[in-house]
Amino acid sequence: MSRLDFTARWQGSLTGAVIGAEFGYLRATDPARFAVSTPADALGIPLEPILEPHEEPGRINHRKITPFISLGVRTYLARGGRATPEDFAEELKNDAAIAGPVFFWDGIHSVQEVLKEGMHPRLGGFGSTPSGLICAAMPAVGVYHGADPDYAYLDGVELASVAQPRLGADWAGLCAAGLAAALAPDATPESVIDTVLRLAHENNRDLFYQMNYPTRGAEWMQTASDADFAAWWLNYYGRGFGRPADHWGGVNPMAFILPLLKRYADRPELFMRLVLAPQPPTWTGEFAEGRSPYAVIGGALLGALHGAGLFPSEWRAWAEPQTAPWKPLGTVITRRLEREREAIRVLDELAAPRPGELSRLHDKVYGCILAG
Q1: Of 251, 156, 249, nearest in space to 211 by CA
Q2: Cβ–Cβ < 8 Å for 266, 310
Q3: Which of 31, 52, 297, 345 gives 20 to 30 Å between its CA and that of 152?
């Protein structure tokens, strides 16, 4: 349980997301750094962000996915409250940073084009290839719906559907839900894991089974040394699973985060190394996206659970300035809480018992049923 206030934790979540984007870019552009001789070597991989990237002329394969984090935040800032797919689409289609010439973002570029041509936002994801990239926009959804993971899942799926088919939208919804669960006052790594698995079981059984087995496997490894855990992770579940045909555009980030969360939620250096280090067995979306979405959502979860103070000071020195434009999100969150408090006040007043008759709330509900 965190003793930090809600503001410190949601701001820590965004800081963690930026940290994940930086190290995800490092993984994508410097894979040799992560090509360890033994699994135990992964525990010591040097993590040094590339703060001033150099791009060769011609095709650009990778860029930092920080613009996707910003996309989610800007959607809520522009709306000033709960965002709709229309709001998300308006921000996405005009996002110049996401429209940049990055080869592995071409699926998202196609969505931007069809939105500009008049495609209805709620149909924009039809025909798209599932991509973990849109999951990187989910920290804002989890923060806005902090402590309400069911609502975060619903809105995560809705917003992601602008650019994703059902599978990719479910990945995003589960990321948003996990982040909202991590912001609950009594949140623990175990409560986050249980919430994500519950929502997957209720809404997409295939994803539940995909995540449940490696997560339970990690539970069996809890008493192992870090070196033995790394061997299990890098040789088996950390590498990916399922059919490669399903992974062309990306893989469910939570499948690679939940198994690490209980053991490493308070050890960010080891978490980042292990979530990024595994080598996928085939040319898949994991290679294309550089595992960046896993690091973004994982970093956001660690920040939500423990605040930005969990991360090394040298990381915060370059991450926190990047989150400065997002601080007004606090005003949007406050507005949401004020509306919910007023709704609760009104409902409590209506539900107050009346001697010898139904409460006004009961009476109104009964009247609606009779009228129907």
Answers
A1: 251
A2: yes
A3: 345
Quick one: which of 62, 132, 131, 136 has its CA closest to 100?
62
What are the φ and ψ backbone dihedral angles of 354, each rounded to 5 degrees? -125, 130
What does the alpha-carbon distance between residue 191 and residue 114 come to, in Å, rounded to a whole number?
A: 39
Instruction: Name the H helices within the chain.
Output: 6-29, 66-79, 85-93, 106-116, 138-144, 149-160, 166-182, 189-203, 205-220, 226-235, 254-264, 268-276, 285-289, 292-306, 313-323, 329-351, 360-371
The residues near 32 (Cβ < 8 Å, ≥ 6 apart) are none
What three-state secondary structure class fits 354? strand
Tell me which residue of 129, 136, 139 sits closest to 68, measured CA to CA: 136
Asked whether the beta carbons of 75 and 159 are under 8 A apart, the reply is yes
| Burial per residue of 291-318, b for 16 or more beta-carbon CB atoms within 10 angstroms, e otherwise | bbbbbbbbbbbbbbbbbbebbeeebbee
Report whether 82 contacts 336 (CB < 8 A).
Answer: yes
CA distance 285 to 322: 27
Query: Minimal CA–CA distance to 128: which of 80, 92, 181?
Result: 92
Give the phi and the psi of residue 60 in degrees, each rounded to 5: -105, 120
Q: Among 201, 57, 230, 75, which Cα is nearest to 138's?
A: 75
Mean pLDDT per block of 10 residues along the chain (372 residues) reads: 83 98 93 92 97 86 95 98 98 97 92 97 92 95 98 98 95 98 97 98 95 94 97 88 54 94 98 90 53 95 98 98 98 95 96 93 94 82
In the chain the first and final C-alpha atoms are separated, in Å, by 46
